[in-house]
Design goal:
Keywords: Leucine-rich repeat, Repeat, Signal. This is Insulin-like growth factor-binding protein complex acid labile subunit. Pfam families: LRR_8. The chain is of the alpha/beta class. It has eight helices and 27 strands. The radius of gyration is 30 Å and the shape is elongated. Bound molecules: 2-acetamido-2-deoxy-beta-D-glucopyranose (5 copies). The site of one 2-acetamido-2-deoxy-beta-D-glucopyranose (NAG) has 8 residues, from strand 18 and strand 19.
Amino acid sequence: MSDNKMKLQILFFASFVLVEGHMPEHYLETRVTAYDNFVCPPDLVLRPCQCTTVPDIPTVHCGGIRSLKTVHINLRAWFQDDPIPYLKFVDAQFEGLPSRAFVSVNVTRLQIRDSNLKWIAPDAFAGMRSLLLLTLHNVALFNLPYESLSQLPSLVSLRLPGNKLHRVSHSDLGEAFKLKYLSLAGNKLTHVDRGSFPIILVTLSLSNNCIRSLNKSIRYLVNLEWLFLNDNRLLRLEGELDGLHSLKQLNLAKNSIGSLGRSFRDLKQVQELYLQYNAIHELGTSLHNLSQLRNLNLSMNRLGILSYTDFDGLTSLEGLDLSGNRLTEINGAFNSLTNLRRLDLSKNRLRHFSFDEISPLTKLTILDLCDNRLHRFSPLPAMSTLPVERVFLARNKLSSLGQFLRHFTVLEAVDISFNHLRILKAEDFTMSPRIDYVSVAGNPLLCDEEQMLVYHELDTANIEVDGRPTCDDVGYSAACKNRSFSTKGLSNSVKVRVINWKK
Ligand SMILES: *[C@@H]1O[C@H](CO)[C@@H](O)[C@H](O)[C@H]1NC(C)=O
Ligand SMILES: *[C@@H]1O[C@H](CO)[C@@H](O)[C@H](O)[C@H]1NC(C)=O
Ligand SMILES: *[C@@H]1O[C@H](CO)[C@@H](O)[C@H](O)[C@H]1NC(C)=O
Ligand SMILES: *[C@@H]1O[C@H](CO)[C@@H](O)[C@H](O)[C@H]1NC(C)=O
Ligand SMILES: *[C@@H]1O[C@H](CO)[C@@H](O)[C@H](O)[C@H]1NC(C)=O
């Protein structure tokens, strides 16, 4: 694959992926100690555990351990009362966490994962006064071990992903006074009681559960900045997000939300909003207060017709993904998006498109209109230009590009593959001095002498034309390559030879 082609395929919106794993693990810890002076004990001392200081926080890893006791004796012998920055158990073979399980060592961060813990004693974590971070990942928990958790006065970050929790109750985290980061992702939650979450929470993940209703449980978490609710069964949000005045990142992807109403009215700080894979059919005024929003993903919803005011107020928006909807009309909806850089309209039902729709987008650099039903571009009298660098028009029904591409004077790459184009015009591409790649595969392109000249001109301009017809019949390959190629004496039947492409 050529570099240029690769360039075209570079992830369209590589900008930001809002997944929980993106949260830097130690982001929220209040005490960030430098571990420059930390020295790992020799492997022999810790066996069967191992110690490493890379990448950042020194960590003691213990895999497949049968008895916590032996580990403790070894750790105690080396560390005594010195804190162990991070202690991790994976595939633990012990059955449960007994009373005061870690009392003889001073641990700052503790993780147990991929283990089948049958029980956790109510005072399992007793004495862990300095524990900042606790992760119990995929350890078969059925209930939040609230009594044990109440003994962790310094806990800032609690992660219990991949367990079998089905309910969060009012009292479960009642004593987690310092908790800022909570992940209950990948459980079986159906019930969340009102008042379950500490008001000081900054990050909350409830993604990948079975929640139908938020039950007013997250309203007015005024410190909340990151909220992950993706992969649930949420139907409506009305009132549920009230008072989330600090929220910056909100992931609601893969739910069953049909309409947004006024549920976002307080989200004035939100910068990233993921709504893909829902059932949203209209926007109304729902987005109007999101003046800080930078990226909006509405991919895979049910939007059919946009209205002129849908995106009013989104003056900071840089990326808008509307792919996979049912759009037939845009109606000038993008008029207020003066900061928009990336617009994805692919996989919709647009039959025609006018440059007018995007002409206010003076910062637009990427435009994707692939997989629509475009026949033509409405002609325009005035020729304003935009700084668009890449245009994707593949898999439409275009038989002409009209003047469309000539609005983009810094174009670098364009994909017009799998359309109904019979001829190419050099001016469509050579308008931009920066263009170096055009994909034309899958078009019924003519192979006559005029077109040969077009290809020749594109070659001369160093533009790679990917998928061009080979024109190898009737001495054409030689003719194609012949720079002093003359048009005299060629029959018409040869001129209109059409190369048919199979999709
Ligand atoms: C929007 O969501 C779709 C579906 O999950 C994804 O393929 C696409 O990359 C997302 N767009 C952005 C801008 O992240
Ligand atoms: C753990 O070590 C830290 C740092 O030396 C100390 O401040 C803290 O009191 C110790 N915690 C316990 C429970 O011994
Ligand atoms: C909603 O919260 C109340 C308590 O505030 C609780 O009784 C009820 O079961 C919860 N319902 C759901 C669906 O979470
Ligand atoms: C925007 O915020 C104001 C005041 O905070 C509120 O009254 C209004 O209803 C909100 N508008 C929308 C469309 O949510
Ligand atoms: C190229 O064209 C010239 C004159 O038009 C002709 O003499 C020459 O044989 C051609 N070369 C090929 C390879 O067709």
